[in-house]
Write a structure and sequence with these properties.
By secondary structure, the chain is an alpha+beta fold. It has 3 helices and 3 strands. The protein has a domain at 2-38: 3-Layer(aba) Sandwich (YefM-like fold). Strands 1-2-3 form a 3-stranded mixed beta sheet.
């Protein structure tokens, strides 16, 4: 892995970044001591589809709107 001092890295920063993008990591040193390792950054786009992610995996009963209607009415009336 190549090592460059800070002054050298500042002078050739554009070409060093181009090389890093291609997968050639490098180290920036200060007074001959390694300080920073530059590696290409990989960003993965998050999946955007959330609506319909359970399509075909669950089913909703036809009487969904009226399920438990009698029990709910009794709970509100206080007779249960």
């Amino acid at each position: 892995m190549q090592q460059y001092n800070i002054h050298e890295a500042k002078t050739h920063l554009s070409s060093l970044i181009d090389n890093a993008i291609k997968g050639n990591s490098f180290i920036i040193a200060k007074a001959g001591k390694p300080v920073v390792k530059v590696v290409p950054y990989s960003f993965k786009e998050p999946k955007k589809q959330r609506i319909g992610f359970l399509k075909g995996k669950i089913s909703v009963p036809a009487d969904f709107d009226s399920m438990g209607k009698d029990e709910i009415e009794k709970l509100f009336e206080g007779t249960l």
